[in-house]
Amino acid sequence: MIHALYEGTFSVGLDKAFHRIERDGKAAQGALKISLNPFLIHTRTEAVLIDCGLGDYGITSHIPILEGHLGAHGLTPADITAVVCSHLHWDHIGGLSHRVDGRWRATFPNASVWMCRAEWEKVRRLTGEEDVKRDFIDALESHVDLHFLADGDSPLDGITMEVIGGHTEFSLGIWVDLPGMKYLMAGDVMGTRGSLSRRYAAKYDFDGRRAQEQRDRLSRICVRDGFGLLCYHDNHVPILEAGMFDATP
User: Do the Cβ atoms of 147 and 83 come closer than 8 Å?
Assistant: First the structure.
């Protein structure tokens, strides 16, 4: 089974701060309105998260929200056996570690954490000037069971990774192909339903043209092969079943 763990809806402006708003509310002028939806997948042998929300980033900690959602499915963070990261922006990986009495702790102490090696190495180089982010990355190295992926790797039962780029240089497409579950999670390349119905090159993408090329290609594959989509930032329908969208011409 697969579940979207709705963390909230936010107004995100030029300061890149996440200001919580109502799900049906309006973003501030000039800001983006986005929701966060980590995905919980039960495979034959694993309890897997695809991305894990903001964690301690923001005005308040979002860890209690995530814990509450897991509890509703009979789980604690210690029951998560794997976390797969579509890319390494903070709203997707912030939940990997959080502070307890001022010290960083792994949120999912028994989980293997999978990410693209090339993106990790790039993030390590770029966070030196920001103390909080540097401390967070150091904490991941010290307290989290990190594993690194290359294009085409299938480290977990029924889950295969593809480097698609676009939103970040090394963004992953995560293909889930299990009995009764066929989904693609493509991070922010296909982060909302609206991304499928228009053509655009976003300024927030590393390579907007490549992101659009990947939307075209990936949507055709999904329609052809019967995959649904997991849309991390969609405000209302983060899980699109196969047949709920058309391939981009």
Answer: no
Identify residue 44 by its one-letter amino acid code.
Answer: R
Distance CA 20, CA 67 (A): 18
Residue 55 contacts by C-beta under 8 Å, 6 or more apart in sequence? Answer: 61, 62, 63, 93, 94, 95, 96, 97, 98, 107
pLDDT in tens, 171-221: 999 999 999 999 999 999 999 999 998 898 888 899 999 999 999 999 999
Q: What is the mean pLDDT of the chain?
A: 93
Place of tokens 């029951």: 79
Say if pTM beats, i.e. exceeds, 0.85. yes
Backbone angles phi, psi at 61, to 5 degrees: -75, 140
Q: Which tokens in the block code for residue 84?
A: 């797969």
* pLDDT for the residue numbered 44: 82
Cα dist from 17 to 67, 123, 155, whole Å: 22, 19, 34
Strands 181-185 and 228-230: parallel
Number of H helices, E strands in the chain: 5, 16
Residue 156 is given by DSSP the state B
Question: Could you give the maximum distance between any two Cα atoms of the chain, in Å?
Answer: 53
Domains of the chain by residue range: 2-175
User: Could you give the CA distance from residue 159 to residue 248 in angstroms, rounded to a whole number?
Assistant: 24
Protein fold of 2-175: Metallo-beta-lactamase; Chain A (3.60.15)
Amino acid, single-letter form, for residue 228: G
Which positions ≥6 away from 92 have C-beta within 8 Å? Answer: 51, 52, 53, 85, 86, 187, 232
Of 239, 240, 232, nearest to 8 by C-alpha is 232
